[in-house]
Design brief:
By secondary structure, this protein is of the alpha/beta class. It has 3 domains: about 140 residues, 3-Layer(aba) Sandwich (Rossmann fold); about 240 residues, tm_1862 like domain (pyruvate-formate lyase- activating enzyme), CATH 3.80.30.20; about 55 residues, OB fold (Dihydrolipoamide Acetyltransferase, E2P), CATH 2.40.50.140. The strands form 5 sheets. Strands 2-1-3-4-5 form a 5-stranded parallel beta sheet, sandwiched between helices. α10 packs parallel to α11 and α11 runs parallel beside α13. The longest helix is centred in the last third of the chain and has 24 residues. The two termini are about 45 Å apart. It binds 5'-deoxyadenosine and iron/sulfur cluster. Iron/sulfur cluster (SF4) binds next to α8. The site of 5'-deoxyadenosine has 12 residues, from β13.
Amino acid sequence: MVNFFIKTYGCQANVADSQAISNYLQNLGCCRVEKEKHADLILINTCAIREKAEQKVFSYIGELAEFKVNKKYLQVGVIGCIASYRKKEILNRFDNVRFVFGAKEDLYKLQSLLHDIILKIETIKSLSSREQNLLIKRKSLTGSQIADDKKILHLGGFKNHTKEVKQSFINIMTGCNNYCSYCIVPFTRGRESSYSLDEILDRVKRDVELGAKDITLLGQNVNSYKDPQSNANFSKLLEKVAQIKGDFWVKFVSPHPKDMTKDVLEIMAQYSDKLCSYIHHPLQSGSNKILQAMNRTYTVEKYLEQIDWIRELLPNATISTDIIIGFPGETEIDYQKTVDVLESVKFDNVYSFIYSPRKYTKAALFKDKCPIDVKLERLKKLQQRQVDICKEQNNRYVGKIIKCLVEKRLTNGKLLARTEGNIRVLISGNDDKINKFVQVKIENAGAVNLIGSIIV
Ligand code: 5AD
Ligand code: SF4
């Protein structure tokens, strides 16, 4: 039997891909292991969004060399976003990497490549060590056609862990056409393309039948979804998903403010039993000058109007956002405008990053005079302020009874649950509560966690 290990970096699209690949390998009879040292095949699913993410991946690949010493037939494969544009470099730089497969390549090819690799590992494992050495010298690996009744990799994966919540990550589209001037995604994941509505609905139904409680619809720009056959838009898709029978809830990431329309919010309000009142609404900057340079194609005023729509149609919605600090040309005044938006909207969660220049992007050519120390200081101040805002926001739950989904047991002994707004809730209880919806009375709130007790 072949043991495999997958290391996943980056966004939920990568989590979905890793899960799908893992399911595929398990269907082939392979066993997923939790430690690299037990693996015959190691896959690294990479992220290129910021330079730091890339550095982490490169040092990790280097560290894996030690496992190759004792297990000569160990196969290491690099997949995902970095693999899309640094194939040659990775193969040249790391002796231990046997194949590199990019995020915009056809996943069916990866399927047949993995199939070949598994056969090869099985063969080599059954040989003596002298015979193994001879075989390993032949380096080339090719994908062959395999009988393929599981053409599901592109839609992502269903996580069916016995001791954790059953989650389904479903890609409703791939790629991105927006070309925000800082972002590498259109280059690593390719052009935007939506998957078939019927195929997505079948997937949701199947995963619900398999016990999925937590479904996330994924895309770089979900609200520009268009069914290739019927032209149905994102709100139609949400409506159809919400009409599927069963005990589950649905979230989606991420919409783009340029494509936000009220019909999506109206459908969310109408089907609030299934569609979580949670919106991740990436702002990036509170300055119109910077938004324009970022090619975001909306203004702060437009964004704030959309926040008003959300508050009006979904009064209890949880709203989170992404912020980039230190984009080229960002002055103290521009930065302050971003802080002002944080103060006025009071997001429940803010993911903030220092701008990182990326190859191929337009902004990589922009002049940037702001020293890194200034940027770091701005980020620190913004994050400190947001901790207080999160605390304030979370306080509104204290004394209330809210529906939560129990995810897993933490190492501190508590059960981790989440609200429909993705807020962490720590509770006490037995393992049989895992993967169940429960009503929780909230007793205490911090910036990161709510603490409560199960009522039913
Ligand atoms: N530098 C910093 N942050 C970035 N993001 C995307 N590209 C960059 C970059 N070059 C952030 C954006 C996006 C989130 C997923 O990552 O905020 O919404
Ligand atoms: Fe990147 Fe912009 Fe596309 Fe998001 S919408 S993936 S930030 S280019």
